[in-house]
Amino acid sequence: MSKVLFFFIVGIGGWMTWILLTREADAIAAAAPAYASGSLRWDYVTGIEIGIVSLLSWWPYIGAMVRKSPNAGSATLPAMLGMGLPVPILSLVGLAAILALQVSDPAAWLMQLGGPTYGVIALLFVIAANFGTTLAGVYATAVGLRQVPALATARWGVLMLFALVPVALVSLVVPELFFANFGTFLAFIGVFFAPICAIQITDYLILRRQKISIRAVFVGGPGTDYHYWGGFNPAAILAMAAGFFTYLYLLNPVSYASHSPYDYLTASLPTAVVAGVVYALVTLLVVRPAGKGGYD
């Protein structure tokens, strides 16, 4: 089903692009972005930053896709190509539509551009295309909830409720509050996911050289490789804190006030570098010499 939907979604994107270029080209060229800062460099870097954090939010989804595949190789390349190619293209379509029509709600501009019939058809395909990724997200959430001691033995249906109810409440009760602050939501993704991704990349690819103990992943408790000190890894905690404050210094996720060198480097990339360096240093100087973490 996903293979079929992929071509329909790309087709809808191409169709929307054609309509925008043929009908709304002048409006797009003359449009003034509502949140333009007056600095072209700052605006451009902020667009790049939003793109980065949007893709960082897919980190756990790609992990869930790999988890359900026979091996990592069969899932990694399709996931990277699937996220790296269509998402930026379709995002540009959305940006062009917002500039032309001055409305950010996709339902509104799909209907406005294509008319009620084509707009409804397009939205149905978009909803269907999100079904698979929603399943992956719920699955990843449920697996994560298994790590909470109180839910370790809970039935799968209970985990589903914990995974779905908060999202349903936001969708049904306060959807406008969420979408009105979507820029803040995206920035907070960068605050947390940039250091998390850096920590995992540094640990797995550099320090462990892609070698982990599968048994230790599932068997915890004192004396096991990944128990560290009482279940806490100080290297990860310090790296997370360093990344968190680096991001806040570079870009305020609420007001979008920034400090140099944000307008050259974005906020997510320096945050990832700082978190990765701190993690590596603390691991090499403290964790590994103490015989923790199974690095030997």
Question: What does the model show?
Answer:
The protein is mainly alpha-helical. It folds into two domains: about 1-145, no CATH class; about 180-295, no CATH class. Helices cover about 75% and strands about 0% of the residues. It is built from 14 helices and no strands. Helix 4 (about 60-65) crosses helix 7 (about 105-145).
Which tags fit this structure?
296 residues; mainly alpha; 2 domains; globular
Distance between the termini: 45 Å
Question: Can you count the beta strands?
Answer: 0
Alpha plus pi helix count:
14
- The arrangement of helices and strands along the chain is HHHHHHHHHHHHHH
Beta fraction? under 5%
C-alpha Rg (nearest Å)? 22 Å
Mean pLDDT level = 85
Which parts are unreliable, with pLDDT below 50 for 5 consecutive residues or more? none
**Biggest pleated sheet:** none
Roughly how much helix do the residues carry, as a percent range?
Answer: over 70%
Overall domain count: 2
Structural class label:
mainly alpha
Shape: globular
Give the gist of this structure.
With 296 residues, the protein is mainly alpha-helical.
Strand and helix layout:
Elements: H1 2-23, H2 25-30, H3 40-56, H4 59-67, H5 73-84, H6 86-101, H7 106-145, H8 156-173, H9 175-180, H10 182-207, H11 214-218, H12 234-250, H13 262-265, H14 268-287
Helix pairs in contact: 1-6, 1-7, 3-10, 4-7, 7-8, 10-12, 10-14, 12-14
